[in-house]
Amino acid sequence: MKRFAYIRVSSKEQNVDRQLETMKKEGIEERDIFIDKLSGRNYERPQYQLLKQLIREGDEIVFDSITRMGRSMNDTLKEYEWFVENGVKLKFIKEPMINTTDEEDVLQQAIQKVILTILAAFAEKEIQDTKIRQFEGIAAAKLKGKHLGRPKTEITSFFIEIHEQWKKNQITATEAMKRVGMSKTTFYRKSKELKWENQKEK
What we know:
Blueprint: E1 3-9, H1 17-25, E2 33-37, H2 46-54, E3 60-63, H3 66-69, H4 73-85, E4 89-92, H5 106-143, H6 157-167, H7 173-180, H8 184-201
Parallel strand pairs: 1-2, 1-3, 3-4
Helix pairs in contact: 4-5, 6-7
């Protein structure tokens, strides 16, 4: 039997040191540790797929938790079953109750499947809750008048002066854009905004 470990974090900015330390304590050599820095909602991760190609019947894969395996409930259940059907043992350090065993206890397997389904559902719900919190945060920020995304380019007195020179054909549009440091799109958008503001004042 050969032992492998799989580690996953959601983005390149996240640190894998804690999971690495855990796997080393499990006695797994670094060359047998596979790491992805990608979302758990999709199982098309390069290192995960490579691991699936390398494992053989009787091998074992160690995960820190079911959430490191993935966060899509239906896909997680399918992946779990795939490993079981191919004789690969699974060990989840934080959820030992769903570790696979050689025992053919029908009742135990049924209970295990129920627990696995619940854990996988919670893993998926956590992702959905995070999305909701993000949307709520954006909505709250907008209500408070906060601008999200790229900072707005203000219409300054300098822009108005250069804009007037352009409108009077004293300089070209290209020269005007260069002087105010704006792209073509921004310059013409601000030109429309200025025209609209002038019309409101009349």
